[in-house]
Amino acid sequence: MRRRLWLRIGIVTAVIVGSLLYLYPPPFARSYLYGPAAPAARPGGILPSTLNLGLDLQGGIHLVLGVDLDKAIEAQVERAGSGIRSSLEKKGIAVKGIQRRGPTELVVELASPETWAAAQSTFGELAIFETKEADQAAGRVVLLLRAKEAAALRDLAVRQGLETIRNRVDQFGVLEPSIQQQGENRILIQLPGVQDPERAKALIGKTALLEFKLLDERVPVEEALAGKLPDGSELLYQKRVDRETRQERRLPFVVQKKTLLTGADLSTARVSIDQTTSEPYVSVELNAAGAKAFADLTEANVNKRLAIVLDGNVHSAPVIRERIPSGQAQITGGFTTEEATDLAIVLRAGALPAPVQVLEERTVGPSLGADSIRQGIIAILASTALVGLFMLVYYRLSGLIANVALGLNLLVLLAVMAGFHATLTLPGIAGIALTVGMAVDTNILIFERIREELRSGKTVRAAIAAGFSRAFKTVVDTHVTVLVSGLILYQFGTGPVKGFAVSLMIGIVASLFTAVFFTRLLFDLIYTTSRKVASISI
Questions:
Q1: What is the pTM of this model?
Q2: With the CA atoms of 114, 116, 118 and 123 taken in that order, what torsion angle do they form, in degrees rounded to the nearest 10?
Q3: Exposure letters 445-478 (e unless 16+ CB within 10 A, then b)
Q4: pLDDT tens digits along 163-200
């Protein structure tokens, strides 16, 4: 009996010490418990700095992005058109032109109708397309993207967008962001602690489609500006900002439409400093396949100009002097250090599969968060004080035991949230307040059961043992039902509802420990270990 009692005391002591360490870690333990990026102090200093606070408590940015799904399909159809052209030309079939019509159609025109039969094998290999129109005499066919493929592309575009944005935000260094899909084509983003909305929007919303294309030097730029563009070429611009006047100039370039390399061939991107001008630029390194393709590209096009295009803008167009086997390139453009850093982040995280636009934007100031925390803490303290007063008056010493257990419950709840990096939100504070009531209700069930056992004539020790034993099943039932409700809220709820569910579930589990295990230990220390106990203060 004594050995088991000391074991229980040891368990409770370990829980208390562990909770205090996670909430208020000393300097030597902070990096061990939370890693090098330990949370900084929170607004107002009301809650421990180790707690992650949601957008509504510490301020930040709330964004709803709309994904342009039609653009994602158009890009896929354009790539398929380039693939069809390459396949036909490899078979010696000349192509007059391939044009996209609408978001889901491709119009393929052969140079000679006599090659119609030979081209059918290529068209038959296109599993994602079906033939909508066919004119053998004209050598013309219209291919339509299958509805099933279009739906899959839309779903993939949103999921890839979510993952890409999440990678960018992680590299940006935002603690506990919330990024989730809303509806068919919307993405909800909450960035706690971020107070620069313009930089965040630029980082998140940049498509970051990196392309390497050769300049088309067959036609002067002046003719291209007049509308005389050769087939297979396009007019792109390079933006330059005068450092003194801050005026923006747009320099035109005639660029071949064919993309020779993309950001998919990128291995890494980092910020470097030009030793001559002391200006930052982005140094990119290609993967093995990309490096080989880049070496072949530069070898075959010595003395030609290669445009480095990002989101349709030419950042630089250097002359290829020799074969470049290293697979390294530079993106310059008069960047500031912050701009170069953000560009390196989005290139490392990958390009968005489709453009996004901001549909809704809200910025929450940190002062509002501090006020919300203060009011929430006051509400919890006031409710706890009233409940504690009632327990003291109605249950006397047993009520004091319940109040001590309630204090441990709150300590464990906050420590578990800190240890698992759960995010505390304003609805989460409401969940803590509800947990206070649930924890006390559990003690009331046990105390009333003990009273019944005493009225039936049992001794104090027997009444305590029977009270805890017989109330245990009811206590577990109530806790399990609330826990299941919390799981459902967390699974199907949105951000604020999830915050409420998290604090409620952790509080319920902590309540089961404190109201049954810890309270029973205190009763055993006060009453059961004493030799003569004639009455109980309950």
A1: 0.60
A2: 160
A3: bbbebbbebbeeebebbebbbbbbeebbeebeeb
A4: 888 888 876 766 667 788 888 889 988 888 777 778 88
CA–CA separation, 257 vs 234, rounded Å? 6
- CA 430, 434, 440, 443: dihedral to nearest 10 degrees? -140
Q: Tokens 């043992």 correspond to what residue?
A: 465
Using DSSP's 3-state secondary structure scheme, residue 287 falls into coil
Phi then psi dihedrals of residue 26, to 5 deg: -70, 160
152: three-class secondary structure by DSSP = helix
| Amino acid, res. 106 | L
Would you say residue 18 has pLDDT above 70? yes
Among candidates 426, 388, 424, 440, which has minimal Cα distance to 506? 424
Mean pLDDT of 307-322: 86
Q: Are 305 and 217 in contact (CB under 8 A)?
A: yes
| Contact assessment for residue 124 and residue 118, using Cβ atoms and an 8 Å cutoff | no
- Are β-strands 60-67 and 52-53 bridged in parallel, bridged antiparallel, or unpaired? unpaired
**DSSP line for 452-508:** HHHHTT--HHHHHHHHHHHHHHHHHHHHHHHHHHHHHHHHH--HHHHHHHHHHHHHH
- Give the whole-angstrom CA distance, residue 268 versus residue 257: 25
Sheet holding 140-145, edge to edge: 95-101, 105-110, 140-145, 129-135
